[in-house]
Design brief:
By secondary structure, the protein is α/β, with parallel strands linked by helices. Helix 1 runs parallel beside helix 6. The longest helix is centred in the last third of the chain and has 25 residues. The model has no long low-confidence stretch (mean pLDDT about 95). The protein binds 5-O-phosphono-beta-D-ribofuranosylamine. The site of 5-O-phosphono-beta-D-ribofuranosylamine has 14 residues, from helix 1 and helix 6.
């Protein structure tokens, strides 16, 4: 059984997609053991409570220094003893101490096709604003492993989504979630739970046939 800790910051629709997929059996052999939010008011915490999952808030505002927050986040994650940490709309730069403690065991969902529209400043609605500003006709979402560099680690899954005439950032964000994010993130977790994912020495991810 794969033990998963999920880190969130806001609405938690990706968390909900994971909860629903575990319940329906679309994600196999997996238990969500803890939800951690940096934001006490995140709707994601209510979603966790409704699903009977332990949810806690670890807010930078409760700590005098960033270092103290980083340690508290590490302790909260370590206490959950997860096999996998899923960043599902987690708007916090993951500290090096967490990456070191869970190397190769953290995945993130990014709402664009990496290496496009990613890195510093590309988060939340801004990603979709930049996509529309540039006028690309295809965007999408990416699930990748997390390393020290932002939106940089080995790519696990990607799915393309059409950009349409008259899209606003909000409309596009919703389409990327519906058509890509809520499908990709559960798929990625299930593949990992089945032991079908490996990363080669060049940092390329491979998926074994079932
Ligand atoms: C998603 O678009 C995710 O890719 C991005 O933030 C959003 C989070 O949405 N990083 P939610 O909290 O899962 O509803």
């Amino acid at each position: 059984m794969l033990s998963v800790a999920v880190c969130v910051s806001g609405g938690g629709t990706n968390l909900q997609a994971i909860i629903d997929a575990v319940e329906s059996g679309r994600i196999v052999n997996t238990k969500i053991v803890k939800v951690i939010s940096n934001n006490p008011n995140a709707r994601a915490l209510k979603r966790a409570a409704d699903a009977g999952i332990e949810g806690i808030c670890v807010s930078p505002r409760s700590y005098e220094t960033r270092e103290a927050f980083n340690q508290a986040l590490l302790e909260a994650l370590t206490a959950a003893e997860p096999d996998l940490i899923v960043l599902a709309g987690f708007m916090v730069a993951v500290p090096a101490c967490v990456i070191n403690a869970f190397r190769g065991r953290i995945i993130n969902i990014h709402p664009a096709l990496i290496p496009s529209f990613c890195g510093k400043g590309y988060y939340g609605l801004h990603v979709h604003e930049k996509v529309l500003e540039r006028g690309v006709k295809v965007t999408g979402a990416t699930v990748h492993f997390v390393d020290e560099d932002l939106d940089h680690g080995p790519i696990l899954l990607q799915k393309a989504v059409a950009v349409k005439e008259n899209d606003t950032p909000e409309i596009l964000q919703r389409r990327v979630m519906e058509e890509a994010e809520w499908i990709l993130l559960p798929s990625a977790i299930s593949l990992i739970a089945q032991g079908r994912v490996w990363i080669d020495e060049k940092g390329i991810t491979h998926i074994k046939e079932s």
